[in-house]
């Protein structure tokens, strides 16, 4: 009687199957640990929850054009962060951080843009209280207008570039593949932004609708306008 013996086990290298084909593993593509990714997401949540230019611009767009304009503004500022992340990988953001003149030019342009948005909101409050609309002031912000305000506001904020130059690389190890690791971190940041800001703008608009006061729209426009002007002034006088 002949006994059939099982074939000998093949010594398969790590990361390959028995046919020599590579098997996808998270660590083979991105060396980020789940703890590192979780820490970065927590940092993004803290930054998003902190009142600042991004949240103010999104709420301003929600006030001027409704929830669609607020979501469009969030998409715009998210694309702005994608630009800054790419600039960080290419070294352009580091050049900005090392050049005082380039930083100041971009900072003052961003400050002027925020102040301009604030003045527009204050004008809207003034004429809304009087029951009329001035010439040159649109009756409502379009979806594309919200997108444009979010994108331009983020591109003209050099502090975003500094963040992606100094903080962002801290979560990418020396042995990591830079582009895949940066892509994962950027997607995580985008997910936080696209969740938090639309949620806050929706809460903002719903609370505003429930409060039945004739003077509330003008008051909200004044608050948004003053906040934007203050943020613009702070950005203008802020040191590197």
UniProtKB/TrEMBL annotation:
Q: What InterPro entries does the entry give?
A: LeuE-type (IPR001123)
Mention any one GO cellular component term assigned to this protein in its UniProt record. plasma membrane
This protein's record includes keyword Nucleus: no
In its keyword annotation, does this UniProt entry include Transmembrane helix? Answer: yes
List the molecular function annotations (GO) for this entry: amino acid transmembrane transporter activity
Q: Which Pfam families match?
A: LysE
- Superkingdom of this entry's organism? Bacteria
Q: Which UniProt keywords apply?
A: Cell membrane, Membrane, Transmembrane, Transmembrane helix
- Name the record gives this protein: Threonine transporter RhtB
Instruction: Report TM segments.
Output: 40-62, 69-95, 101-119, 155-172, 178-198, 219-237
Q: How does it sit in the membrane?
A: Multi-pass membrane protein
- Localization per Swiss-Prot or TrEMBL: Cell membrane
């Amino acid at each position: 009687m002949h006994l059939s013996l099982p074939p000998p086990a093949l010594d398969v290298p790590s990361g390959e199957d028995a046919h020599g084909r590579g098997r996808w593993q998270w660590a083979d593509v991105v060396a980020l640990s789940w703890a590192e990714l979780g820490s970065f997401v927590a940092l993004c949540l803290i930054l998003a929850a902190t009142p600042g230019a991004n949240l103010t611009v999104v709420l301003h767009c929600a006030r001027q054009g409704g929830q669609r304009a607020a979501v469009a503004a969030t998409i715009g500022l998210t694309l702005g962060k994608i630009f800054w992340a790419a600039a960080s990988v290419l070294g352009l953001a580091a050049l900005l951080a090392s050049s005082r003149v380039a930083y100041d030019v971009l900072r003052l342009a961003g400050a002027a843009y925020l102040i301009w948005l604030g003045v527009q909101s204050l004008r809207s409050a003034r004429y809304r209280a009087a029951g009329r609309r001035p010439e040159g002031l649109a009756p409502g912000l379009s979806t594309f207008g919200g997108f444009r305000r979010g994108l331009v506001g983020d591109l003209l904020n050099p502090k975003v570039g500094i963040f992606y130059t100094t903080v962002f690389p801290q979560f990418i190890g020396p042995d990591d593949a830079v582009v895949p690791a940066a892509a994962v971190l950027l997607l995580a940041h985008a997910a936080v932004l696209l969740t938090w800001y639309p949620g806050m703008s929706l809460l903002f608009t719903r609370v505003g609708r429930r409060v039945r006061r004739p003077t509330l729209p003008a008051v909200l426009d004044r608050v948004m306008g003053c906040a934007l002007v203050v943020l613009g002034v702070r950005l203008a006088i802020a040191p590197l």
